[in-house]
Amino acid sequence: MTAQSTQPVPSPVSPTLSMAQPICLRRPSLRVLCVRARLARTILAQVAKRVPVDVVMPDGSLLGGGMRQAGRPGLQIVRPTALFERLAHHPKIGIGEAYMAGDWKAAEGTDLAELLMPFAERMTTAVPAGWLRLRGFVDRRIPTIQNNSLLGSRRNIEAHYDLSNDLFATFLDETMSYSSAIFDEDQPLRTQSFEEAQLRKVHAILDMAKVGQDSRVLEIGTGWGTLALEAARRGATVTSVTLSKEQAALARQRVADAGFTDTVDIRIQDYREVEGVYDAVVSVEMIEAVGEEYWETYFRTIDERLAPGGIAAIQAILMSHERLMATKHSYGWIQKHIFPGGLIPSLQAMSETTDAATTLRMSAVEAFGTDYAETLRRWRETFLARWPEVNALGFDETFRRKWEFYLAYCEAGFATGYLDVAQVRFEREGAAVAAS
After folding, report:
1. What 3-state class would DSSP assign to 379?
2. Within 13 Å, how many C-alpha atoms sit on residue 372's CB side?
């Protein structure tokens, strides 16, 4: 499929990424930051002793001492002073921005995702407990500008999804699906068709919501229209809402090309402004953009829009409830550079929210986190292979490193179980008890 031509709007780069020299060298008066940079080096050296990764200094020595071990992934530090200053300034954001700036890289022969996996596996133990107690002094709260109000949500969505349809078309499969596929567990993973795996995901969630002939379907989060089209092919009428003008334009084009303009309505509309009654509400990886303060509103809206006997099916990226509670107010690299306003929920948080604020009850959960690791691996592999095309759209090398880190970082999270993804069914209490 050929995406419509668009003018890319590369994300702005933090001024710290392009500085000619580290701050300590340019402004010796900033002694506190320099002290913190030395402290960051000490902490990273201790982390290196707890994680099976060789952290290699520019002269070939290992941070923390020792010798390189065969078969271990290697993290090559390119500009130590700049790296440690970034970590000192903001540990959670600094490591990603340092990769964007080229301060470190995966050592030769090491895949970036495989390098990040040992850290993801030890997310809660890599940093010594004594240092973790200082988290409150370095963590930053999520900026209020990223609040998912009606205006804020539109701004947050546009920041990512309106980068360029042509950009996404370079690395997504033919369905233009930007969410986890579901692979056939009985077939060799690497030989499976990506397009078939994405369509398997779509039909799995449509089946979960019991979408069929004459179903009235509300889709919250259009993507580029594949789910709406597949629901229409089942004989459903679909109202699909998105805040991305780029996605809406291409989705409408695809609907028209497929001959479903009479049964599929693509709207640029906030989910909170939708009216009407529907037999099914389906939402694929959109809840991550809702924000904790609006989870009740999101589920209450779904509850209000569902007809008697209706079913909601949501595909959601998940983290453990313990990690959610520990990190939900902390500002991270993903929120700053990839998904402003984003917050990954837990199953417990979703269940508690629906129990407290709606008549909906969670009635089924189908998880497939390792499939997301494979999905991300394929996206990253294709993105890098087709980088010259992305570059020709106007995106620079900093953008390339940013997206390479984003895709590898997420792949590591799903591969190690730190993150999960699931399709979750919600029904009204009587129907949920009957179904069980």
Report:
1. helix
2. 28
Tokens of 395: 């995106």
- Does the pTM surpass 0.85? The reply is yes
317-354: burial string, b at 16+ Cβ within 10 Å, e else: bbbbbebbeebbeebbbbbbbbbbbbbbbbbebbbebb
Q: Phi, psi (5° rounding) for residue 363?
A: -120, -10
pLDDT of residue 13: 40
* Ramachandran angles phi, psi of 421, nearest 5°: -140, 145
Instruction: Write out residues in the chain with pLDDT < 70, as ranges.
Output: 1-36, 126-149, 151-152, 154, 156, 158-159, 430-436
> Which residues, including other chains, have CB under 8 Å from residue 245's CB and lie 6 or more apart?
158, 162, 268
Q: Which residues pair with 267 in a beta bridge?
A: 241
What φ, ψ does residue 312 adopt, rounded to 5°? -110, 135
Output the pLDDT for position 132: 53
Residue at token pair 């069980």: 436
Residues forming beta bridges with residue 106, ordered by sequence position: 75
Contact 266, 240 (CB under 8 A): yes
Q: How far apart are CA 171 and CA 167, in angstroms?
A: 8
Tally: H helices and E strands in the chain = 20, 10
HSE at residue 159, side-chain half, CA atoms within 13 A, is: 21
R_g over Cα of the chain: 23
**What is the model's pLDDT at position 341?**
84
Q: Tell me, what's the pLDDT at 146?
A: 60
In 227-372, beta strands by DSSP E? 237-242, 264-268, 278-284, 306-319, 360-367
Contact 327, 297 (CB under 8 A): no
Q: Which of helix, strand or coil describes residue 296? A: helix
